[in-house]
Task: inverse folding
């Protein structure tokens, strides 16, 4: 048997309507099934560098050339980081189990990046440490999106509900989530690229919209700390992205209206889309929303919907034998 490490990184929802680029939450289906990517690494002296193979539900959405896979990039970036410490990277076989759809608004690239870096660091005896890992994750995610954003990486790695700080060397801080919120997460099966979703946003915003954004985000953070659930829910309104991005997601307005009729606290776009989320305090209402979305919002066989809690564990890694 060969010793190996298998890492898991969960799906995440960024922005959460009130926190454009500054809020993100890791998601865990209440069914207990995983919703995220796995990366397994084991030493392979017979290869030069790394050998990447892929599998999983959404493997058909990945580049056929493994050298164009973000996991391949993660190995090379990790190797470079080790070399800067005067250390040498192992020759490895790497298997990516791709269970999250790309360009879905569920932090798909972040999940692959986080799982890869966590697994790589585990097999190298945790050589980079916490600070080194999260920095490398941000750099790799930035390579995909064009700039470094931690609103998916931070919740995916740390778990929970994360507020992105980016000041005084602090990347993010955890906010206490509301335990009785059921998050209905639905991917309709269509692709919305981050680049397209960003290009549709205006270059400038009205002063009043900027003030409203800042006021609601500050109030949401305050409400989380003071455990004021009604106040927090009242702030989950987007004036920055959703008014422009809604047109990229067929059926979004109808889904939001149906959610409101069921008593949803909020319905919004997950990240840059096409996935959406709805928040409920009643479990039966959450499942009714899930079933409605499966019938009326999902466009093809790639789509899915889950009723979730916030995943407070984030990424995990275990030693396995293969």
Result:
């Amino acid at each position: 048997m060969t010793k190996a490490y298998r890492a898991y990184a969960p799906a995440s929802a960024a922005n959460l309507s009130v926190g454009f680029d500054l809020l993100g939450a890791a998601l865990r289906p209440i069914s207990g099934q995983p919703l995220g990517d796995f990366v397994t690494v084991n030493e392979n002296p017979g290869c030069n560098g790394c050998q990447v193979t892929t599998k999983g539900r959404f493997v058909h959405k990945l580049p056929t050339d493994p050298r164009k896979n973000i996991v391949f990039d993660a190995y090379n970036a990790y190797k470079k980081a080790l070399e800067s410490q005067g250390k040498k990277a192992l020759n490895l076989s790497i298997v990516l189990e791709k269970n999250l759809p790309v360009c879905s608004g569920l932090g798909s690239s972040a999940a692959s990046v986080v799982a890869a870096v966590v697994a790589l660091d585990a097999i190298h005896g945790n050589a980079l440490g916490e600070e080194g890992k999260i920095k490398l994750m941000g750099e790799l995610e930035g390579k995909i999106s064009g700039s470094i954003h931690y609103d998916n990486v931070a919740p995916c790695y740390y778990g929970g509900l994360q507020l992105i700080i980016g000041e005084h060397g602090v990347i993010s801080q955890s906010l206490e989530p509301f335990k009785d919120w059921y998050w209905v997460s639905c991917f309709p099966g269509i692709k919305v690229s981050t680049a397209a979703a960003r290009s549709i946003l205006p270059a400038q915003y009205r002063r009043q919209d900027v003030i409203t954004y800042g006021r609601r985000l500050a109030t949401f953070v305050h409400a989380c700390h003071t455990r004021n659930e009604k106040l927090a829910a009242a702030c989950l309104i987007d004036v920055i992205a959703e008014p422009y991005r809604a047109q990229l997601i067929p059926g979004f307005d109808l889904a939001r209206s149906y959610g409101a009729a069921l008593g949803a606290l909020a319905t919004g776009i997950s990240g840059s889309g096409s996935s959406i989320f709805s928040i409920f305090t009643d479990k039966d209402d959450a499942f009714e929303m899930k079933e409605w979305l499966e019938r009326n919002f999902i466009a093809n066989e790639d789509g899915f919907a889950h009723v979730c809690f916030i995943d407070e564990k984030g990424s995990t890694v275990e030693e396995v034998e293969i």
Observations:
- The mean pLDDT is 95.
